[in-house]
Every structure is written in structure tokens, then in C-alpha cells.
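#lab-general

N.A. 3:47 PM
ok so I finally got the sequence cleaned up, no stray characters, all 265 residues accounted for. can someone with queue access submit it? mine expired

B.Y. 3:52 PM
send it over

N.A. 3:53 PM
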Amino acid sequence: MKRITLGALDYGLAFGVDRALRDLAEQGRISALGALVATDLWPREFRPLIETVKASSSRTLFGITLAFTGDRVSPVSSRMHQTYGDRMFSRSKMNRLALLRLLPDELLLEETLAQLGRYTVLMKRQPDFVAVRDGMLARSSVARTVFKAIGHAGFDTPPHIISPVRSGLKTLRLQRLAKPYDLKFLPKADPLPEVSDREELHRLLHNHFDGMADMSFVAAIPGRADDRLRREEPKAKIAIRECQYDVLASDRFFHTLEKKDVFLN
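B.Y. 4:20 PM
back already:
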């Protein structure tokens, strides 16, 4: 028998996504849910998430997805906002700054602490895990800052870290950086296939979990269309979200897991 952590990391992005994720978590169809606290919806969407935490299995992980890059997020800390305005870095710019060792480490530390604080204060709980958007944790300079902020946060129980990379030298380097803070990783596995045909997704999932390490984190992007998503995402991505939601919500998906002797952590 093998355990996997099937999770979505974009709660707070749109009402349709948030409703879908709450439903799947409450029904035990996903086992991890990460919140983007740097979106404009988070101040409204944290309240129903608190109820979902209460209604879900104690094994379900609820955590935070730190966002330093990408659209639909804004700085939380005052210094980051004063320095860079309402927009976060683009992924390419942050990668370039990290490569050149020009990242504003102190500003990033304050921003990380601000996002962690926003989660813990509003949710009245510590995050079970920490992820970083766009795989930026793979950058050693970003990882050092994030791990340092987690240490400063003084959590009673260190959160799990969602690994941004598969096994290899980068994984060993990240584990070495995390060791002083007693942080453990959930290993990265292939995300759910991004297809829009439900029969095809069911077929692909039959062998999708083969060869995965125990407790591997499998990312998903389920959701339901709403006006916000229709404005901000292409139709193809929305179709993938709805396909994943329908498949994960189906009894057929759990029959597949039973046949493969896999269960959700």
C-alpha cells in the first residue's frame, strides 16, 4: 500500500476554484490544500476555509503557498509594497535576479514573514505545509530566505515543505539548507495530467501513480468556471480545471486508487 498527497496550491485565486477545492477537501477527494494569501480574494475566502478545516479529515493538510512571482498577487509587507508597488516579480525577472545574486533578501524575508503571519492570524492555526509558487524554492537564495522566515515564525510544529524538484543534487542541497530548521520535505511527483477529456484522464490515472515514492506530492488544479476565471484564464485551462474536478469528485477515481493499492494521506 502506498500513500500519496494529492493537493491543490491555488486557493484564493477565484471563487470557482475555491468552492471546488473546499468541496473536494471536505469529501476527502484531495489531501492537501494550499492558500495564496497575497490575492485580493483571501480576506473574504479565509472564513469558509476555516469551516472546511473543521469539516475535513484530520489527515488533510492545510497550508500556504508563498507567492513572490506571477499575476493576481500583490505584496503583503509594507516595505515590499513601497518598493515594488502592487505587482510581484515576473518569474523570469526573479530567476534572473537569483542567478545574479541580486535578490533583495531582507525585503523577501519581510514579505515571507508577512504572508506567513497573514495565514496564521486569519486562520488561527499554523500551516501544515509551505509551498512556493512557480517552483521558486528551487533557487537556493529563495530557499534560505523561506527557511529562515519559517524559523523566525516560531511554529510549534515545523511545517512540511513541498519540494519544487524531484530527487537529485538540488534535492540534497535543499535538504541540507532545511536541516537546521528541522524541516521535512514531501517529495515532488508528476502532477495530474492536464487534459480536458474526462475519459482520457480516467485512463491516464490508472497508471499515473506507479513508481511514486511514499507520501509524494501530486499537484492538481481542479476548479469550476466563474466570471473571474473566464476573464483571466484561457478556455483551455478552465476546461482542464473542470475536467480534473469532475474526475476527482467521481467514485470511479477512488475505485482506481483501490485497484492500484494507493490511498490519499
